[in-house]
Design goal:
Elements lengths: L2 E2 L1 E4 L17 H14 L3 E4 L1 E2 L6 E2 L2 H12 L5 E4 L9 H5 L1 H5 L3 E5 L20 H8 L10 H13 L3 E6 L3 H11 L8 E6 L9 H15 L3 E6 L4 H11 L2 E4 L6 E3 L2 E2 L3 H14 L3 E2 L2 H8 L10
Parallel strand pairs: 1-14, 2-3, 2-11, 3-6, 6-7, 7-8, 8-9, 9-10, 10-11
Antiparallel strand pairs: 4-5, 12-13
Length: 306
């Protein structure tokens, strides 16, 4: 009971290359960061891919395959492949890596929301690539769509490929969605929820909100495994609270570019090392990849397609 799963979200699709020189872009950079995160104590690496030339979020299955294959050849870390993709991608683009790679774990966003990044333009106004400004600007009039039809279709892909979903919950109503889809048989136990906090358009990152969402999920769903990730400056505070409450944690450059105030993280490894240091100060130990597989009920690395 004193084991906690640490996930490293390696690159994501929120931050753009001009925001940090340390953001992994190429398949080699992403794979190297995942391996080093495991060596630092992470049990899971959450994987997005990007155009190697421009850093724009991509949905190319061959980029995912290249990253996954390179990681697997060097590490037994659990790979959690995104189905969130990049903002503006179609449902088909977002889910295609699940049947192609049959990963052990993949993210599954469980409701629609106003996913806003445009306020980053208040801080960043010079960009290396033309797409960056356009990408941030369009989110002022953007809804991240996850309808019940797409939830059903995604669920079918997960079940068919024996991929465990990591259910991303950005707001309270998404817990209702989980309970409904579970009652209709579109989700199977064990359930793994990640509370995503601090995104403009979703639930604010406060201790009160985390406790409210956790209690609501317990009341509606019963037993489940869970984790917390939080945007920007909220990352370590909310992850520490998750550890205290019995949950797991996600850190990484997808969620936060900084190690502490005014000090940009030079790698995902630095953030992994920091949250593990906090965990150990609380008397907790990081789960190994194989321990994470047992905790989450994953099918095993021998059953993936990469």
């Amino acid at each position: 009971m004193n084991k906690r799963i640490v996930t490293a979200a390696i690159t994501g699709s929120i931050h753009t290359p001009s925001m940090s020189p340390h953001l992994p872009i190429t398949p080699d950079q992403i794979a190297d960061e995942a391996v080093r995160a495991c060596e630092a104590g992470a049990a899971v690496a959450h994987i997005h891919v990007r155009d190697p030339q421009t850093g724009r979020p991509a949905s190319d299955v061959e980029l995912y395959r290249e990253v996954a294959t390179k990681v697997k050849s060097r590490s037994n870390i659990v790979l959690c492949i995104t189905t969130g993709g990049g903002l503006g991608m179609t449902t088909q683009e977002r889910v295609r890596a699940v049947p192609a790679l049959k990963p052990e774990l993949a993210s599954f966003n469980f409701g629609s929301l106003n996913f806003a990044l445009f306020h980053a333009l208040d801080t960043y106004n010079e960009f290396q690539f033309e797409w960056e400004r356009q990408y941030l600007t369009m989110t002022e009039d953007f809804i991240f769509p996850n309808t019940f039809k797409s939830l059903r279709e995604f669920s079918e892909a997960f079940i068919q490929n024996q991929t465990q979903p990591e259910l991303e919950v950005y707001d309270l109503g998404m817990i209702n969605n989980i309970a409904f889809m579970l009652s209709k048989g579109h989700l199977k136990r064990p359930i793994y929820i990640q509370f995503v906090m601090g995104i403009l358009g979703g639930m604010a990152a406060t201790p009160e909100n985390l406790m409210f969402m956790y209690k609501t999920a317990r009341d509606q769903i019963g037993d489940f495994n869970w984790s917390v990730c939080a945007a920007g400056r909220y990352q370590f505070n909310m992850c520490t609270m998750s550890l205290i409450l019995g949950g797991n944690v996600r850190v990484g450059l997808e969620d936060n570019l900084y190690l502490d105030r005014g000090n940009k993280a030079k790698s995902n490894t630095e953030q992994v090392a920091k949250i593990i240091r906090i965990a150990r100060d609380l008397g907790l130990d990081p789960a190994t990849p194989d321990e994470a597989r047992q905790i989450l009920g994953l099918k095993g690395l021998d059953k993936v397609a990469y």
